[in-house]
Amino acid sequence: MRTLKTLLDGLSFPEGPRWRDGRLLFSDMHRQRVIAVDPAGRSETVLELNSSCPSGLGWLPDGRLLVVSMEDRRLLRADPEGPVVVADCTPFAGFHCNDMVVDAEGRAYIGNFGFDLHGGGTPCPANLVLVRPAEDACVAASDLWFPNGAVITSDGKTLVVAETFAARLTAFDILPDGSLSHRRVWASLGKADNPLGETPQPPVPDGIALDAEGGIWVASPTTREVLRVLEGGAITERIPVSTSAFACMLGGADGRTLFVCTSLHSHPVHCRETRTGRIEYCEVDVPHAGLP
Fold first, then answer.
1. Of 130, 149, 254, 286, which residue is the least packed, with the fewest Cβ within 10 Å?
2. What letter would DSSP give residue 123?
3. Cβ(233)–Cβ(185) under 8 Å?
4. Residue 242: closest CA among 268, 216, 267, 260
5. Measured in whole angstroms, how far is the alpha carbon of residue 181 from the centre of its chain?
6. What pLDDT, in 10s, does the model give residues 220-253?
7. Contact partners, residue 147, CB within 8 Å, separation at least 6
8. What is the pTM of this model?
9. CA–CA gap between residue 192 and residue 174 (Å, rounded)
């Protein structure tokens, strides 16, 4: 059984981890900032938002950072003079926007809650929003139950998105223009034939990360773990978390460091008050692949 170690603590609610240029970047969501931390635990704030919380992160082909702005449902670009609005997702996002994956062409696929999660709203399906460079937002896929973390395979041909409220990973083919087709279930979580046995409730996929053997690491906050899932639903490994795991990313010098965003709470008020968020990590066997 692998054991997680703490790289950075005292965070409000870390989300959207991305490994780039020798550092892990992530959104400290409820403090409205994007932070970078190196393997020694040295951190710095690289972007602050004044009116909204950041979530998903990605990069354009020219290296400029893209950031999901949650409450106002916009995609931002971090220019030297300050954040610039790239697209307004409001017409297609039922509630706050959340995680995102950006492909090699700079096309951003953005999830959203679909309903007021913390305000007691009634769960309902949501869209996965697509923003192509220099174009307005549009719907890439509909009828998804809380589309959340997403990955793109190394060949750029397949997108897998976590449907948090459906306890499954759903795959699409990516067409040359960035649109999605051939929707299918990549893995249903909590099946009885998993070789490592089952928890009383099925894992709930939040943030995800792809490895070079086609396995996907899944952060499951409700079962307090990260787990490695294969296409079809077999679970090959589970790593327990002392609080709750909300996102994960493979990185480090050889791509074999699994970084996990953890927190005791997810409600914005509790997160700001308690600051229990952490970046935790451990070494795994199979390195990173694909995007992000």
1. 254
2. P
3. no
4. 260
5. 21
6. 999 999 999 999 999 999 999 999 999 999 999 9
7. 98, 111, 112, 126, 127, 128, 141, 161, 162, 163, 164
8. 0.94
9. 31
Any residues with CB less than 8 A from the CB of 81 and at least 6 apart, and which?
none
Where do we find the tokens 């791509």? 255
**Domain positions in the chain:** 5-283
Q: C-alpha angle 41/44/45, rounded to 5°?
A: 140
Q: Is 3 left (phi over 0), alpha (psi -120 to 50) or beta?
A: beta
Reference 40, options 15, 77, 2, 8; nearest CA is 8
Q: Which fold does the domain 5-283 belong to in CATH?
A: Neuraminidase (2.120.10)
- Reported residue count of the chain is 292
Tell me, what DSSP letter sits at residue 4?
Answer: -
Residue 12's SS3 state is coil
What pLDDT shows up at residue 191? 55
